[in-house]
DNA sequence: CCGAATCCAACAAGATACTG
DNA sequence: CAGTATCTTGTTGGATTCGG
């Protein structure tokens, strides 16, 4: 009986670490998840909260919707309103966000001491 | 008094999420941290555990060493041996790894149901 | 207001060959 | 064994423009 957590990087959908790494890579996913973890937000709100261009935000949100992390709701109003929320599996991501916040702050402290 | 967790993406070293995202972006950091979290490993061991080329692994390890996540120890033997271990702040990253493992497995389940 | 389309710059990462 | 050097490729993200 071997240890076998995950051996190859080719196993998206098998190893939790490989899977998560694929989803989190890139420059924005963690930040968007963090924003939406605080509640539903509109496109423009997200764009201002994070410093990101329209085109980039748009493609990121589309990708995350396809991956099942977020939901997009269109309200047929004038002017049009589009709201983004977390899916069930997206909401569960809060445990990762919490540990990232904790560790991130520790790392920031480490940076200060080093400097 | 505003909420203010982190508003702009330009604040590396200020916001824990922005900082962590910068460190974790790319395709390999989480996987390497996971491997080293289980104990010290040699270059060749890492290369086999993860499916990664020499050149890529080498540059990743160098970057992570500069960021203070890992330590590199050279044993002047023949044949040469180099061992990688986690630094103190690197070891603390295990809380993030644990939550990623948990959530990653949940996401894998979600994928199965969806399919 | 939201976001799609296009084009392009920057960077990440793989293949291969070579060194102490 | 543990890298480095170089070249090439693939992927991301940004600027700009246009449409519903």
Automatic annotation (TrEMBL), chains A, B:
Record carries keyword Transcription regulation: yes
The name this protein goes by in its record: Helix-turn-helix transcriptional regulator
Keywords: DNA-binding, Transcription, Transcription regulation
Keyword Metal-binding among record annotations: no
The HTH hxlR-type domain, residue ranges: 15-112
PANTHER family for the chain: HTH-TYPE TRANSCRIPTIONAL REGULATOR YODB (PTHR33204:SF37), TRANSCRIPTIONAL REGULATOR, MARR FAMILY (PTHR33204)
Taxonomic superkingdom: Bacteria
SUPFAM superfamilies on file: Winged helix' DNA-binding domain
């Amino acid at each position: 009986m071997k240890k076998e957590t995950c051996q190859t990087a080719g196993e998206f959908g098998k190893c939790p670490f490989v899977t998560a790494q694929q989803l989190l890579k890139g420059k924005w996913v963690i930040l968007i998840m963090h924003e939406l973890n605080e509640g539903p937000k509109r496109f423009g709100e997200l764009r201002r909260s994070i410093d990101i261009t329209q085109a980039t935000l748009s493609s990121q949100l589309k990708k995350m919707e396809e991956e099942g992390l977020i939901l997009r709701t269109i309200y047929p109003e004038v002017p049009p309103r589009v709201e983004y929320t977390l899916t069930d599996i997206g909401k569960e991501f809060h445990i990762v966000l919490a540990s990232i916040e904790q560790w991130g702050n520790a790392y920031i402290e480490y940076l200060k001491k080093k400097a």
